[in-house]
Write a structure and sequence with these properties.
173 residues, 20% strand, 5-stranded mixed beta sheet, 4 helices, 2 domains, alpha+beta, 40% helix
């Protein structure tokens, strides 16, 4: 996996290439080369690329790994206070709790918009059950609430709905 140190090295190389293209652009403008305006575009692109690589060298790209968590899919996220993840119907309550904790950690962002009344990120976990052929019903198995203000906030509340687990189909042998 790429680390911030890798991106810093790529930024350095991209910066050097940007300086080379800038020098070629200046030479092209002075000597009125036919490709001088293409060099201007290339230098601008290299500036944007270098800036993006520099930004990636500042922000850590690592994800938290919670033991026992299973794979989930983000199915809804309003970018503020609500998100929904989908899990497999054969998930256990303990695996769901670990998965919700991992989702809460991975979906936390300083850029999320909080409301004045509720500064909490609520993530609900659901699965799909098929009570009869051709019919799919979403079944919400639990939810987690965490603060939008602080990443290190220990006030995380996890709710698991045991009555919903009873509605899950039993695995066949």
């Amino acid at each position: 996996m790429l680390t911030t140190a890798n991106f810093l090295q790529y930024t350095q190389w991209s910066g050097i290439a940007t300086l080379v293209f800038a020098a070629l652009t200046v030479l092209g403008l002075i000597f009125k080369w036919g490709i001088r305006f293409r060099l201007v575009g290339t230098t601008g692109f290299m500036l944007v690329l270098t800036g993006g690589l520099f930004a990636l060298s500042l922000v850590p790209l690592s994800r938290t790994v919670i033991p026992g968590a299973v794979r989930f899919t983000l199915v809804y996220d309003n970018g503020a206070t609500h998100a929904v993840i989908a899990t497999s119907p054969d998930i256990t309550p303990s695996a769901l709790e670990a998965t919700l904790r991992q989702a809460a950690s991975n979906l936390y962002s300083y850029g999320r918009l909080g409301s004045k009344t509720d500064n909490q990120l609520t993530i609900r976990a659901r699965t799909l059950i098929h009570p009869e052929p051709g019919v799919s019903v979403p079944l919400y198995l639990g939810q987690i609430k965490r603060s939008l203000v602080s990443r290190e906030n220990a006030e995380i509340t996890v709710e698991i709905y045991p009555e919903k687990f009873a509605q899950l189909p039993k695995p066949t042998a």
